[in-house]
């Protein structure tokens, strides 16, 4: 949002997943977080010195801009991909929505209004 951090993606985005877990809801101040996987080799970050991170669960770090607070991505230990926060994109995507996950922790004030598969936890 402030421009201190930017990134480029040279490969494809994975399918979109809407995560309703408590940590995503709290980190984003929203009913859920929309994310897609991007292979590490396809993700180039600019302005890394402006990034801050928080280990929200064991082995999972959430990276955000220290200037404006925009959530950029998350990374789990021992994986070859990042979890891109789609709200940080500046361009349109060509990927499809796949599912809602962690609906067992969904905000009680939000109702899902589509026919995507719903999973009580991660798929």
Automatic annotation (TrEMBL):
Residues 1-111 form the CENP-V/GFA domain. InterPro entries: CENP-V/GFA (IPR006913), Mss4-like_sf (IPR011057). Keywords: Lyase, Metal-binding, Zinc. GO terms for molecular function: metal ion binding; S-(hydroxymethyl)glutathione synthase activity. It holds the Pfam family GFA. Its EC number is 4.4.1.22. It is an enzyme of class 4 (lyase). Belongs to the Gfa family. PANTHER family: CENP-V_GFA DOMAIN-CONTAINING PROTEIN-RELATED (PTHR33337:SF40), GFA DOMAIN-CONTAINING PROTEIN (PTHR33337). This is Glutathione-dependent formaldehyde-activating enzyme. The gene is gfa_3.
């Amino acid at each position: 949002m402030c421009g201190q951090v930017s990134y480029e993606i040279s490969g494809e985005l994975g399918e979109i997943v809407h995560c309703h877990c408590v940590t995503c809801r709290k980190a984003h101040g929203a009913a859920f977080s929309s994310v897609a996987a991007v292979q590490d080799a396809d993700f180039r970050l600019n302005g890394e010195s402006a990034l801050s991170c928080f280990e929200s669960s064991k082995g999972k770090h959430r990276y955000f801009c220290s200037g404006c607070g925009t959530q950029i991505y998350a990374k789990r230990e021992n994986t070859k991909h990042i979890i891109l926060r789609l709200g940080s994109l500046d361009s349109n995507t060509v990927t499809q929505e796949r599912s809602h996950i962690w609906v067992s922790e969904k905000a009680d004030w939000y109702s899902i209004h589509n026919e995507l598969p719903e999973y009580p936890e991660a798929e």
